Amino acid sequence: MKLVSFQHCSEAAPVFIMILVAFGILMGLIVVIIKVLIFCKIFSKAGYCWALGLLMLVPIANIIMPFILGFGDWPIQKELRLLKQQQEKPEA
Asked: Is the residue at 55 inside a domain?
């Protein structure tokens, strides 16, 4: 009976782990990039500068900015309110 040697398996394990870690890092970067692009688009549609979406990369700002979006008065809403007020004024 022949004994099975696991020497090849022990040599391949670090390579497999490195590939797995590299894949995890790549997937993490893709998720972060997609998240930043989505927030850039949201800020742009809300009337803010699109670059505020880049603040999602900053650790404390990524907690605060969704609250600003959710509870703040958007510039586009201010502009809409101003236009409605101008329409309601009687023209002389």
From this structure: yes
Nearest to 56 by CA among 73, 75, 34: 34
Number of other CB atoms surrounding residue 16 within 10 Å: 10
- According to the model, what pLDDT value does residue 7 have? 55
Residue 39 exposed, middle or buried by CB count within 10 Å (0-12, 13-18, 19+):
buried
Tell me whether residue 46 is exposed, middle or buried, using C-beta atoms within 10 angstroms of its C-beta: 0 to 12, 13 to 18, 19 or more: middle
Residue 3 lies in a domain: no
| The model's pTM | 0.69
Give the range of the structural domain holding residue 30, as residue numbers without chain letter: 8-88
